[in-house]
What we know:
Blueprint: E1 4-13, E2 21-30, E3 33-39, E4 49-52, E5 56-60, E6 62-64, H1 83-94, H2 99-115, E7 118-125, H3 135-146, E8 149-156, H4 175-189, E9 198-204, H5 212-225, E10 229-233, H6 237-247, H7 251-257, E11 265-269, H8 275-284, E12 287-290, H9 292-297, H10 305-311, E13 315-317, H11 330-345, H12 352-359, H13 361-366, E14 384-388, H14 400-405, E15 412-417, E16 420-424, E17 427-428, H15 433-450
Parallel strand pairs: 1-4, 1-5, 6-7, 7-8, 8-9, 10-11, 11-12, 12-13
Antiparallel strand pairs: 1-2, 2-3, 5-14, 14-15, 15-16, 16-17
The protein binds zinc ion.
Amino acid sequence: MAGRLVLDGGTVVTMDGVRTEYASGHVVVENGRIAAVGPGPAPAVDGAQVVDVRGCVVTPGLVNTHHHLYQWVTRGLAVDATLFEWLTTLYPVWGCIDEETVGAAATAGLGWLARTGCTTTMDHHYVFPADGGDVLGAEVEAARVVGLRFMLTRGSMDLGRSAGGLPPDHVVEGIDQILGATSEAVDRFHDPSADSMLRVGVAPCSPFSVTTQLLTEAASLARDKGVRLHTHLAETLDEDTFCRERFGCGPVDYMASLGWLGDDVWFGHGVHLDDSAIALMAATGTGVAHCPSSNARLGAGIARLRDLKDAGVPVGLGVDGAASNEASSLLEEARHALLFARARGGPQALTVRDALEVATIGGARVLGWDEQIGSLEVGKQGDVAVWRVDTLAHVDIVDRVAALVLGDRPPLELLLVAGEPVVERDRLVRVDEQQVTDASREAGRRLLVKAGVAG
Ligand code: ZN
């Protein structure tokens, strides 16, 4: 954005280092970055566009640290299954995806994330059918048209059922193919610049779908390229059993033995971690994408969020794929993080502001992007969410941060990414929502027919 945009009169929750809040304040965005944040009205400047945000809470845009966008078109399947049952049902369907399916699903999924306050999301894509075309290119294009900041991770699976893994053999790839394609994805898309809208990471899928050799070589590749590493870890007790039977240790010790701990690594879930695993992750700066809705939906358990935070483990939130979290609402994850943490650990287990922190600057830290995003501070990217809290659902609520975290999801008045509007008054502004909806419906129908699930 070349101009100067002033958000004036709202409650400003900065999530800066000392969690500064202004009951009535302003945020100024100029040339895509935050130019001023402070109390009271902004100083008048000729030519500035002033938006009256009285009745609203202004927060950093939310950051999603774990997702699988292609799953948007496979929601509502195996709705009462465990993770391993659910995966076994869905792998054959996912084996039929292609560039067109992924493009439509990603556009819809990204659109909904934006509608729920997300300005930056990662995606973990690990299913690459041989005839699927350019699925990563389709995702990148989806993020560009919707307008979100994006961390694309090139996932992979090379441990098929015949070799003792969980996925069927026809959805796994060979290790040379995986490493070549991952390297190519980094070279093609990764932009490390300060104003980057697109970064790339390396992300083999999980210990039960990936060989030890792939994990080791993927870590070397990521470090050669200077990009981040991600995988699913410690999600279920089934996985814990798998690791102990196959590798003779728990998942975190297994990853430690492969050089997979460090401040350039984050794991999706981290539900089943004992004290020593948490201490090891904290000591190495290894992050966690906490996915409370998905973990509850699949009955996997719930991560020890208070303990992770107390130990100093970087923690962000993830909606996880839409097939295990049909809501895919990032603000709902903040609410669930708080409710489940207190249900597990008592009333002091997580404060309302802790919940907003993990949804914003916490997530940015997990993605290694916290110098640019995650808080409202001068010089950071103009990624801002403006929530309306003066309607029937929240009017007169005393603590406006509690309106976000404990209340129902408020209307999203405005969402800016690099200062550009992506959502206005609960509508996507850069794409036609009806066209996105129609394309998603058609892609989902085609996929289920191709997979033999629907006629
Ligand atoms: Zn996942």
